[in-house]
Write a structure and sequence with these properties.
248 residues; mainly alpha; two-stranded antiparallel ribbon; globular
Length: 248
């Protein structure tokens, strides 16, 4: 038993980051985010639900035109996003104390369940059902998955990734700082943008044929991430269930 514990300690010391912090997890979640964006825009109301900047702009435009009720409408997705952040922040600690699975793993399961349900919503149903649900999911995900291999990453939108690519390019040209680290940042952030686009392409293709049910295509990558994280929680990293991921 002592030898097993010693071996486990060696494993975790050799692997500085948990499974939920691995770059491949962030890449797959970014792929799904691109999928969501194309999905809601194509068949669920012509909006993007991954972030809230557009909603703030639309609310401001409505206020400027004196369209008060239309402006109030944008509080619905904003509130869903805010609530998702609050829920993920409040519940993550309680889940960690159960000693069973990590909040990160449970969140992916919740996301899978939500995607299954959304696929059954008829085309005639109000778009807001899908929009608010995806707003809520993306908010929880953004607040939960924060760093990939120690590098701050967002799994639901591209703006910061594009900024980081630009910063890394300039630093590499000027030979400013750690060149190896800048190359890693450039590659990782570029990959995040690339997979986001691939997710959008995949989603747009499915939406042409399956409409609302196209969202079930996201179950493939989400299912893969869930089972890999669950295996880590129950087996490989079970003794480190209380360990807090970087960035929290």
């Amino acid at each position: 038993m002592k030898n097993e514990k010693s071996s486990a300690n060696k494993t975790i010391s050799d692997e500085e980051y948990l499974a939920c912090e691995r770059q491949w997890v962030f890449l797959i979640l970014m792929l799904v985010a691109g999928f969501y964006g194309a999905y809601t825009f194509s068949v669920r109301g012509g909006v993007f639900c991954n972030a809230q900047t557009a909603n703030f702009v639309m609310m401001a435009m409505s206020l400027g035109k004196g369209e008060w009720l239309h402006a109030l409408y944008y509080f619905i997705p904003m509130s869903a996003y805010l609530l998702g952040t609050m829920v993920s922040e409040g519940i993550s600690g309680k889940i960690k104390r159960t000693g069973f699975i990590r909040w990160d793993t449970l969140l992916i399961l919740i996301e899978i369940i939500a995607v299954v349900i959304l696929g059954f919503i008829p085309e005639s149903a109000p778009y807001q059902i899908s929009q608010v649900t995806i707003n809520f999911i993306c908010s929880m995900q953004y607040n939960t998955f924060r760093q990939a291999n120690g590098i701050p990453m967002a799994t639901t939108f591209c703006t910061n990734h594009l900024r980081q690519v630009g910063v890394a390019i300039v630093k590499l040209i000027k030979k400013d700082g750690d060149m190896g680290f800048q190359k890693t940042k450039l590659i990782n952030h570029s990959l995040m943008i690339g997979v986001f686009v691939l997710g959008g392409i995949f989603s747009s293709f499915l939406c042409m044929f399956f409409l609302g049910k196209a969202i079930w295509g996201a179950l493939i990558p989400l299912g893969f991430v869930f089972f890999k994280l669950l295996y880590a929680d129950l087996k490989k990293e079970h003794d480190y269930i209380d360990r807090t991921p970087h960035g929290h």
